[in-house]
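Subject: sequence -> structure tokens, single chain

Hey, anyone have a minute? Need the predicted structure for the following. Not urgent.
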Amino acid sequence: MFERSRKGEHALLIQPHAGGPPDDGAVEEFTDLARSAGASIAAVLTARIDRPNPSTLIGSGKLDEVKAACEATGADLVLVNFPLSPGQERNLEKFLERRVLDRTGLILDIFAQRAHSHEGKLQVELAQLKHMATRLVRGWTHLERQRGGSIGLRGPGETQLETDRRLLQKRVEQLQKRLEKVEVQRTQMRRARVRSELPRVALVGYTNAGKSTLFNALTGAQAYAADQLFATLDPTVRRIELPGGGVVLADTVGFVRDLPHELVAAFRSTLSEAREADLLLHVIDAADPLREERIAQVDEVLQAIGAGDIPQVLVFNKIDRIEGAQPRHDTPGEGNDRVWLSARDDNGLDLLRLALAQQLGLERIVGTVHLGEHSARLRSRLHALGAISAERHDETGWHVEVDMALADVRRLATQAGGHALESLLPVEPQEHW
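Reply:
Had a minute. Here:
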């Protein structure tokens, strides 16, 4: 058994594929993932796999080719764009005498670099430990040594493998308890935002679509934004003002094809910003030739986390990379609204703000309502919203001039004592049969 090197920045990439030519988009994305982790690319090899080898995934001939390429290029790390079983990973390392990481291990490494908040670090460590637990099954031979034998320690003892498993499980339980406490705190903060009665909007999209750049452009914040995969890991929440009222905007982690299940599970509290939003801004790289495929992959993840039914506005970002493209707002009869813009150049953001206001029902309503003597509570709520511009009182009650968001009118009109506001609501068109 070779000694696993702790180095591993010069990587050889293996892209398995089944029949036909390899997917160029998958190869490019995997290359970007490797660079995002800090690796330099020594070479990229494709491997056609019609029937995966249960012990090494790839066949013996391709295995020899990979080893020769590693020696020729000086690669000290092999990255495989495929989920490897623990046995396959171990056998590949033994034959190639280099560290081997599969797609899941690579994404976990990137997440470990990007996590900065306390919760994010806990989530990454939990995902890594769960991934590592599968790698301890029938693990390295040095883990089978018995500790018994010395004076006072004779007897059957405990294998090092069993000790590692027990310690790992104990740490997983500790992390889960700490994350449960963090989730309680996050839930309390979320409830406070709900009580503030501000609509919640979450930015979602494929990684590197420009979500953080758009978030900064809309909020004036300084969230980290870079041209790399998974630049944002920890969610950031800010209030923004739109025509008609304020909303809470959350920036979330980017999605990627074949997102590992353990990551989806570990980041459930972070992804809940998307799951509990009133509206999703689905940010898309307009210049990406695979953008339709990316849209479908994001929608698939949204379905997996329980956010598939939340209304969306599709934001086609980076139009500055498309010759002749201009900002516009498309409102199809069926389907989601589409806004084309460049967040980097602040070009088209006004169109997005108006689209958000329309989707969230933030259009302004101006008018006069009569509040009877028993409507003091409703009048108090209108004052709290800053909706009353003028009022006068007589023997019948208050005559109040209001200027407020349509969403607030609709919400208050459905509450006890709010029927006086129904006269302000726009008349819905009647269907004719």
